[in-house]
Design a protein that fits this description.
Length: 207
């Protein structure tokens, strides 16, 4: 019997960074497809009903909201300036805690880590975020250990990526964890993407 695909839910909100969303979405959408597999079912989840205006003016209309989204196996929280407003949204933070509790994996990209930190989901973990938000992450997640220069950090259930394009590297890492190196490398090759596996001794310090 073919196993059911894992449900990957990507949170979207106004002023979220486009590549934070599109990068991991593409990885999970293409992984395994060349072999006729469909290991992941990916969907967008909005904070509220209606159209979401991402950074740069791109608009999307997610099929679900936090009020009606099915339980996610893999929850992805992107970053962007819109995270600052959501840090003060108790309904969204409560949903994150609930959704994370049911998920197999919880991922953040860029300043999405701020939301996880504010929700108390990073306590005691090794974490990172966009290089410009390190001080803010330390403020909202004082019980986490914040590292600069890491492409992504895998804590087991919770995996956090640095800025923007690092979300692609993290997503490929998750595919490798769940499905093996061959399918992850195949997805990277299909995307013509040079995968940074966050090898020891290599640090990404931004530009």
């Amino acid at each position: 019997m073919t196993p059911s695909p894992l449900r990957v839910s990507v949170l979207v909100f106004d002023d979220a960074d486009l590549l934070d969303i599109a990068g991991p979405y593409e990885v999970f959408a293409v992984a395994g497809r060349r072999d006729g597999l469909e290991p992941f079912q990916v969907s967008l989840v909005g904070v509220a009903p209606g159209t979401v205006a991402l950074r740069g003016g791109v608009r999307v209309e997610p099929p679900f909201t936090v009020a009606n989204a099915p339980a996610a196996d893999v929850l992805i929280v992107p970053g962007g300036m819109g995270t600052r407003r959501l840090l003060q949204d108790p309904v969204l933070l409560a949903w994150l805690r609930e959704a994370a509790g049911r998920a197999e994996l919880v991922l953040s990209v860029c300043t999405g880590a701020l939301l996880l930190g504010k929700a108390g989901l990073l306590d005691g973990l090794e974490v990172t975020t966009h290089q410009s938000a390190m001080a803010l992450l330390r403020e909202v997640a004082p019980k986490a250990r914040v590292h600069q220069g890491e492409r992504f950090l895998d804590n087991g259930k919770v995996i956090v990526a640095a800025g923007i394009s690092a979300g692609i590297d993290m997503a490929l890492h998750v595919v490798e964890r769940l499905l093996g190196a061959e399918l992850a490398e195949e997805a990277a090759a299909y995307m013509e993407y040079h995968w940074d596996r966050n090898d020891p001794g290599l640090q990404d310090e931004g530009v």
